[in-house]
Amino acid sequence: MSVWSTLNRTVFKRTSTFALAVAGGTFFFERTFELVSQSIFENLNKGKLWKDIKHKYEN
Amino acid sequence: MAATVGRICGARLLKKYGLVWPQACQLSTNTQGWTKNRKVWLSTLGVVGGGVGALLFALEQSVQASGSEAHPPHNPWNHSGWFSSLDHASVRRGYEVYKQVCKACHSLQYIAFRNLVNVTHTEDEAKAEAAEVMIKDGPDEEGNYFERPGKLSDYLPSPYPNENAARAANNGAYPPDLSLICSGRKGGEDYIFALLTGYMEPPAGVVLREGQNYNPYFPGGAISMAQVLFDEAAEYSDGTPATASQLAKDVATFLKWCSEPELDDRRQMTIKAIGMFSMLAAVVYYYKRHKWSTLKSRKLAYKPVSKK
């Protein structure tokens, strides 16, 4: 039996587990998406951001 | 409007066909598509509409060529581009220029010291900046107004108590508040850079009044602000050579930040929006193909039933 149909049977069929999967999926998706896009932004702008220059002014 | 168009084009043009009518035409041998007449009308409407739009655009463009002022050239700003953040080192230097030069005449009343924290200054540095100025506060318990050193929550103090005082000190011209000047002038930071570095001798025939200077980028040419940026007109704490154009570039970047403090967030949001919408587009594309696969591969035929 494939992973997909197992998943279908155990998680997606029942509303309670399905809702749980949605909530959990959202959490992990949002975290990774946020981190990835932020690191893209910080890489593109390396050296220009406050976080790149603040070490000069902190003691 | 719709009624007039309907009268001109004939009621057929604006007739409601329903959402699935175009599909039904494709799928069925029964319904008819658009008549030739209607197609002609619609194309004419499209061509005329596009033509009027192009004309308006051309007129608007030609207005720009009618003034006498020079148009600021576009500079390759560090922060222009879909994903480019502000150069915070430059914003910090720009603040130093504002503080040492522009502050003598221009207010920056919508910027508070707390706004500098984690943008150009550390919290301690911003507190020190604030403590350098005296802020009018009060009334205290006895009803008196008093002066105290600034706090993070204070806004940058203005050089003049009101507009009249500012005009009186500047030959009747009012030095505008610089908080939103970058958004408030056509050309934005390009204009500010060009204005600050563009002073020159007035050409023959241009008469300037007392206290006026000639600047081709200023509408009208006669500006009541003298040239303020020269080499070494301000001092940088990070050792960058303070040439006039460097000062102008940095203060223009700083004013860009003042006008659009959310610029970095917006640029980051662009990245996120592109990521999110491309995922959604993929889903929508797949779903559309999925739903249409059956619809597209069938055709309904109506066979007339003869009455006996």
Provide a descriptive summary of the structure in words.
The complex is a heterodimer of chains A (59) and B (308). Chain A is 75% helix and 0% strand. Chain A has 59 residues and is mainly alpha-helical. Chain A has a single domain (3-57), classed as Single alpha-helices involved in coiled-coils or other helix-helix interfaces, CATH 1.20.5.260. The mean pLDDT of chain A is 93. Chain A has three helices and no strands. Chain A has helices at residues 3-12, 15-44, 50-53. Chain A is elongated, with a radius of gyration of 20 Å. The longest helix of chain B has 34 residues, at 263-296. In chain B, the strands form two sheets. Chain B has a two-stranded antiparallel ribbon. Chain B is elongated, with a radius of gyration of 31 Å. Chain B has 308 residues and is mostly helical. Chain B has helices at 2-9, 21-27, 36-64, 88-100, 113-116, 123-131, 163-169, 181-184, 188-197, 244-259, 263-296, and strands spanning 134-137, 146-149, 213-214, 222-223. Chain B contains eleven helices and four strands, in the order ααααααββαααββαα. In chain B, helix 4 packs across helix 10 and helix 9 (188-197) runs antiparallel to helix 10 (244-259). Chain B has a domain at 86-110 and 154-261: Orthogonal Bundle (Cytochrome Bc1 Complex, Chain D, domain 2). Classes of the chains: A mainly alpha (59), B mainly alpha (308). At the A-B interface, helix 2 and helix 3 of A face helix 4 and helix 11 of B.
